Amino acid sequence: MAMLSPAESALSTTLEQLELMAEAAAQTLRLFQHQLATAKSLLPSQTSAQDMPTQPSNAPASGRDFREWLLDGAYYPKGRFPLVVFKKYVEQQYTLAELTALFAADKVYSKAVRGNKIVFKPAAEVTGKADASFHGDLVRTKDGKFIRVTNQIGMNNFPELLQYLADLFHFPIQTKS
């Protein structure tokens, strides 16, 4: 039996360790895939904006929508959901001009939609009474400007905004059941 040099011996040991690590990683991957499949089977089914009722069944007579929407494993109410989407997908990814073009009312909403069609405003433009209609959290644009996202989205307007955001940023629409 030939003697291995110290370098060859170290290399042999390293290869054995890498093979063991690869097998452990493969086992871990199989476990994660099983856990993911199990978790997906427990989630509520995905819906599209067209499937959503205009007046949700869990809304009281006041017409308030208490549903929550899923993004990255957490649920958010209708008023906060667009802010979370902007924080995840928009912040420092688009310039103010690009956002203004992307979120022009005629791109987001159909002509049938009435009421507030503003999704965001430059932070400097949100003053006085309007302050209460926008989240206090600022979203920074790619060109260093700050915007504020509205918290006033009508129940009839929300399905179209939700579908637009989901199509634009490629995330599934899911509600808490």
Outline the structure in words:
The chain is mostly helical. 40% of the residues lie in helices and 10% in strands. It contains five helices and five strands, in the order H-E-E-H-H-H-E-E-E-H. A three-stranded antiparallel β-sheet has the order 3-5-4, with helices on one face. Strand 1 and strand 2 (74-77) form a beta hairpin. The longest helix has 37 residues, at 6-42. It is elongated, with a radius of gyration of 24 Å. The chain starts with 5 loop residues before the first helix and ends in an 8-residue tail after the last helix. The model is unreliable at 45-60 (pLDDT under 50).
Brief synopsis:
40% of the residues lie in helices and 10% in strands. It is built from five helices and five strands. The longest helix has 37 residues, at 6-42.
What share of the residues does DSSP label as strand, in percent? 5-15%
Largest sheet: 3 strands, antiparallel
Provide a count of the helices: 5
- Taken from the alpha-carbon principal axes, the silhouette is elongated
**Uncertain spans:** 45-60
**Termini separation (Å)?**
68 Å
Mean pLDDT: 81
Oligomer: single chain
Helix/strand order, N-terminal first: HEEHHHEEEH
Structural class: mainly alpha
If strands are numbered along the chain, what order do they take across the biggest sheet?
A: 3-5-4
Total number of strands: 5
Helix content: 25-40%
Cα-based radius of gyration, to the nearest Å: 24 Å
